[in-house]
Amino acid sequence: MSAILLAGIARTTEPQTMLRRFLALDAVITGVNGLAYVAASGPLGRLLGVDDTVLLGLGAFLALFGAGVGFLATRRRPPRLPVKIVVDSNLLWAVLSIAALSLWLDPTTAGAVWIPVQALTVAGFAVVQWSALRAAALGPGTDPRPWPGPA
Asked: What is the DSSP secondary-structure string of 67-112?
C-alpha cells in the first residue's frame, strides 16, 4: 500500500468513515486474495512453493474473513470489539506468515518475496485500523496517528 493511497482513503474529518474505509479496503484485498488462492491453488502453489491443499484452505479462510471484515465495513459505526478482533487477527496473520516462512515453508523465490510482502500489508492494515478505531473512540477531529509527528 502506498502512502498516497492511504492518505486518500483516510482523507476525512469523520473517524468512523476512515475506519470503515480501511476495513473495506482490507475486505476487498483479503477477499480477492482468498478467492485467487481457492480458484488457482494449484498454479499459485507451484509459483509460490506452497502446497496447493494448504493454499486452498488458506484461501477459503481468507475469503470468509474478508466477507466478515466487509460486513463490519458496512456498519455505520463498526463495533469496537469485532474491529479489535480484526486488528488482532491481522497482527497474528503477519507474525504467523513470517514464522511459517522461516520455520515450515520452503518457498520458491516468488514465495519468499510474496509472503513477507503480504505479511507487511496485513500488518499495515492492523496499524491503520487500530489508529482509526482509536480516533473513533476519542471522537471527531481527533488526530488518529498512533505517534506524534508530521502528517
From this structure: HHHHHHHHSSS--HHHHHHHHHHHHHHHHHHHHHHHHT----HHHH
The pLDDT tens digits of the residues spanning 81-110 come to: 999 999 999 999 999 999 999 999 999 999
Is 70 exceeded by the pLDDT of residue 33?
Answer: yes
| Backbone φ/ψ region at 149: left (φ over 0), alpha (ψ -120 to 50), beta | left
Mean per-residue pLDDT of the chain = 88
7/31 Cα distance (integer angstroms): 22
Closest CA to 124 of 18, 22, 14, 35: 22
Amino acid 15: pLDDT: 87
In this structure, the dihedral spanned by the alpha carbons of residues 76, 81, 85 and 86, taken in order and rounded to 10 degrees, is: 10
Q: At what angle do helices 15-39 and 80-103 cross, to 10 degrees?
A: 40
CB within 8 A of 58, min separation 6: which ones? 34, 37
pLDDT at 22 over 70: yes
Between 80-103 and 109-138, two packed helices, what is the crossing angle to 10 degrees? 160
| Size (the chain), residues | 151
